[in-house]
Amino acid sequence: MSSIYTLNLTALLALNTALFYARQTKSHSPTPSPPPADSNVKDSTTTKKSTSNPPQHASKIHSLLSSPLAPFLSVYTLVMTSDWLQGPYLYPLYTKTHSLPPSTIPLLFTTGFLSGAISGSFIGSLADTHGRKTACLSFCMIYALSCLLTTLSSSLPVLFLGRVLGGLGTSLLFTVFESFLVSDFKARGLEGRLGETFGVMSTLNSLVAIGSGVGSEWMVGVTGTNRSPFWLAAGVLVVAGGVIQVVWKENYAQPPEGAEKKTDEKKTEERSLLGVVMSDPRILALGLSTTVFEGSMYLFVFFWAPALQSSSAAGTSLPYGVIFAAFMASTLASSLIFGKITERLPFSSLLLSLLGVSSLCFFLAASNTSSSQFTFWVFCLFEACVGMYFPTMGYLKGKLIEDGVRSQVYGFLRIPLNVFVVVALLITGRMEGDKAFVGVFRVCSGLLLLAAGGFWGLVVRRRGVDV
């Protein structure tokens, strides 16, 4: 059984190699020289990058890493490394190292999601008011402390505190960094490169996930303890915090144009968080899509292993590390072709397609419980959707949400997401049998289809929407 999954991973890595090679080959083809930059612009290097034709796709990672955007991308790589290092070993740490009873572990995970839901109601407002750089530094400190508390003691109060901080850190991770990036791009006049940059971030994230998975497994093998990936993650966060402190410049929420001419009462009304979300049906559609897609993704993380185990022969031991690497290779492959797809398909239409294909994946996974290979490839297809979803959603949110309430809205959109996952975990925790995932996958399939319909009606069908 292990050999077939190793072969699958080899095939996916070969596909990624071919995609890299194809992009590199195209980047060597001659392209027209860009027009000279305006000599009146202060930063001519930035102007050339933002006004000329986009670089060939094969050189995008190199061009961004060597540009003024490199400080952000380097920090992004570090913080995502810290997150991926922990993922594969959180459950083994609880079960084997801390010897916790099975009934306690779902409560710990639920605590983390509840913490994320509650913090999402205020974390964005604090970031917009006190600065996104400050919020990113706070993330590094909070998440590093969460790593240490998770490993230092088997005491339940300490472990629950670790999950509370972990939920708060996750809320910051997926709120303030993206908000900082979009605001920084607008300040630099690089808003037109948002889609390209989010695509590069997706590629980097996939590469980091593969490397972190292999690295954490190697560390556990060398040190003999499941705690070591968490210690390394804390160290990586210290480095990331140092780079942020030294290199980054602070940015704050910018009020809407003309807001200074309005009364304080009118400002409060127009900048009301709920008012911003409810007044624009496109943001409502993004919120529904975020809740359902990312909620389904988190549930997938919990249930892919029992789903594959259920469709495998009795007594079969699955190579979970190899399978995880294969999933990450699938996300990498999709991120490599993301740029080509967005050259031909609007971002709104792409998100609609991703919701539809993901719905089909969960339906097929719930309908088939006898072929592990069929289920595996369906899961790889879903992971490919994940690889395109995050840059697509990042671009759409950057286009549709005003800067003055950006972090607040990003945090607000994560509240229903966390509530959705908590409710699903509590319900499935009461299910008996080893095929509880079937019902979960069916519900996810239906909700994804519902989200696709809502997004089509509120965004794609609308005329004059430049997304």
UniProtKB/TrEMBL annotation:
Pfam families from the xrefs? MFS_5
Q: Name one GO cellular component term.
A: plasma membrane
Keyword annotations of the record? Cell membrane, Ion transport, Membrane, Signal, Transmembrane, Transmembrane helix, Transport
Q: Which residues cross the membrane?
A: 105-127, 134-152, 158-177, 198-218, 230-248, 283-305, 317-338, 350-368, 374-396, 408-427, 439-460
Work out whether the entry's keyword set contains Oxidoreductase.
no
Annotated region described as Disordered, given as residue ranges: 25-59
Compartment(s) of residence: Cell membrane
Protein's membrane topology: Multi-pass membrane protein
Q: Which InterPro entries match?
A: MFS_dom, MFS_trans_sf, MOT2/MFSD5
Q: Which SUPFAM superfamilies match?
A: MFS general substrate transporter
Gene Ontology molecular function, alphabetical: molybdate ion transmembrane transporter activity
Compositionally biased region (Low complexity):
42-52
Extract the PANTHER family matched here: MOLYBDATE-ANION TRANSPORTER, SAM (S-ADENOSYL METHIONINE) TRANSPORTER
Can you say what this protein is called? Molybdate-anion transporter
List the lineage, top down: Eukaryota, Fungi, Dikarya, Ascomycota, Pezizomycotina
